[in-house]
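Q: Can I borrow your eye for a moment on a structure tokenisation matter? Would you mind producing a protein record, from residues through to fold? Write it directly below this note and I will take it from there.
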Amino acid sequence: IQGYAELLAESLTDSESLQMVNSIIESSKRLTDTLDKILSLSKLEFEGIQVQKADVNINDLLRECYSLFISLSNQKGIKFNLKLLDTPISIVTDEKLLRGIICNLVNNAIKFTPKGKVELAASIYSSNDSNYLRILVSDTGIGIPKEKQDQIWMAFRQASEGLSRTFEGTGLGLTITRKYVELLGGNILLESEYGKGSSFIVELEVGKNYDQNLENKQIDFPKSEERLNQDIKDGKILYVEDDEYSRDVVVRTLSKLHFVETAASAEKALEMMEREKYDVILIDINLKHGMDGVQLMEKVKKIPYYRGVPLVAVTAYASETDRDEFLSKGFSNYISKPFVLSKLQKYVKEIYDNSRETD
């Protein structure tokens, strides 16, 4: 639905029709976001998440999260400030969980701030012979009444409040965020005054020893549309998908930039690979007839030419654990459905560019 609506919006000139189509797109995004959060919460409560710790450069992670939301803040006319650590450090933690914590808090801050500013900042402080990382997300938004501050951590609680009827939401984001913080052994605090804004503070113990000798590497920020369209017309993509509508949306989206062919089954895809050489192969995980996506990927990797070609898992509402599993099985990347068209174009281009650089 979202894919067709975005394609339709590109061709409309009538303002009233465009407004209605944009409403469909926004409604689809909210539904997708709700389903993602429900699945994440279900995973946390019934299956659990394995914490996977490694060295994480905090300033790099902050820049990455900032780059994900600067466009949204600009659209709302809100200032979004970023304050990095004075000295870049690396700590041992789960990068995916920490990224989820920061992004959930920033997303909430922008959502509930009609005007003013949002700030993302980090600092290090010492207490009781140990060191702590403090991440602050503050806003000048609507704030939270004192008598309701304990309720915001409860799943679905916002949906019954007047607040969420003005500002869309399910109340799941903060529930998930708190559970992520607990998995990392940290604390999350709230300071808020109704009508003046809120501050969420995440504190994680980093111990006495952490790496301060890091180069302050620059994260790649989103590329412009002009750069996106350069020098990629010769790319050949195969999309293996048994759903007719999904195939149609992807072809309409990517054919502007690439040569795209589709296959409705794994068997058909293997036939096509015998006569054509593709630069990127997108494979839906849940192929319903014959081989599934994982089985197809395993067969494709045995073909000499395709051992170095990106094989991308296409998944619907995949949790972090599911995505890690796909990558561990041999896929080089993954893309989640439903597709946001602009992100799909940029993502496929990045995969294509990276594969050419390693040739």
In short: The longest strand covers residues 117-127. The radius of gyration is 22 Å.
